């Protein structure tokens, strides 16, 4: 695959340099739909969205109605208190909601976040990452998809739980 994205962090100089894959020229290939498309991402045949790549997530498992992502933050993701910034965690959850939705819609169906509610349960410390983000579809209808998500640290402790509604754009 051409233009493979990369992410490099240099803690010594407090710098980060990364790239993302260009958007496909064919608009139908920009929306991921179906488990097969997600498995192509896992195998490296397709790229994550630029936003998900920027947030340091990797899709590691996908089945119909459920996905698992691994989130690997670095110092760039910390707040002033030294824990992973809640906005970063929220971004991980939003990505997971989208990929879970993708696992249950047919090609040609678009989707976007309509509602997102994140509950922060405990601070996520860098030394307890990579975090695991799981998302499971609770209901899929004609115009919306309801998804539940959870973020856990390397000790298996829940750091955040979330629910969201994705708006579906059917042809």
From TrEMBL:
One of its GO terms (molecular function) is hydrolase activity. SUPFAM superfamilies: Thioesterase/thiol ester dehydrase-isomerase. Residues 1-21 are annotated as: Disordered. Its EC number is 3.1.2.-. It holds the Pfam family 4HBT. It comes from the Bacteria. CDD domains: PaaI_thioesterase. Residues 81-160 form the Thioesterase domain. Keywords: Hydrolase. InterPro entries: ACOT13 (IPR039298), HotDog_dom_sf (IPR029069), PAAI_dom (IPR003736), Thioestr_dom (IPR006683). Belongs to the thioesterase PaaI family. This is PaaI family thioesterase. It comes from Dietzia aerolata.
